[in-house]
Backbone:
């Protein structure tokens, strides 16, 4: 699992914004509806953010030793995955509605009703909240390394210009290069 990065989240938001803007232009150009989520979806994204935050605080309390009872490490891994999913969903939600909000801002002087603008701005804020909660909870789920110097050489800290070892220290490569003699016939498996 890769660590969340700001450039990746921004690219996701930009891609969702481009798709959202295009789909909205096609829909409104064909006399269709404005493609903004309904207000009730704010409650759903708030519930997701709250659930991820509660699970993340549970993991953080365990790591700090506040709750010393038995704790399954898979819960921390699942919480980290949920936090990342919330962050990605927030980036997409925010990007989609940000482009719609920009378009609605350009129509501010022409329209008398501003509900679509407020709805899209509310969803942008909801997306930002999901990204922040996901980012923070993912930080709660990281375990400190046993060796302080190991953090510098950890794979997620390496720069992309360094060459990473190929699968399993080269073992997978050696098996592929070796010619294997397989028995053929009825009894061979």
Residues:
């Amino acid at each position: 699992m890769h660590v969340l990065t700001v450039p990746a989240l921004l690219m996701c938001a930009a891609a969702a914004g481009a798709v959202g803007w295009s789909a909205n232009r096609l829909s409104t150009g064909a006399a269709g509806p404005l493609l903004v989520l309904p207000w009730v979806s704010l409650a759903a994204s708030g519930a997701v953010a709250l659930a991820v935050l509660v699970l993340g605080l549970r993991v953080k309390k365990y790591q700090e030793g506040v709750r010393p009872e038995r704790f399954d490490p898979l819960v921390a891994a699942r919480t980290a995955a949920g936090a990342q999913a919330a962050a990605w969903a927030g980036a997409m939600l925010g990007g989609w509605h940000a482009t719609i909000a920009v378009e609605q801002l350009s129509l501010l002087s022409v329209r008398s009703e501003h509900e679509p603008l407020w709805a899209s701005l509310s969803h942008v804020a909801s997306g930002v909240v999901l990204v922040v909660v996901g980012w923070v909870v993912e930080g709660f789920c990281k375990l400190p390394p046993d060796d302080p110097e190991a953090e510098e050489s950890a794979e997620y800290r390496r720069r992309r210009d360094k060459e990473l070892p190929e699968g399993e220290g080269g073992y997978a490569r050696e098996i592929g290069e070796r010619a294997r003699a397989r028995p053929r016939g009825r009894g061979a498996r």
Q: What stands out?
A: Confidence is low (pLDDT under 50) at residues 168-179.
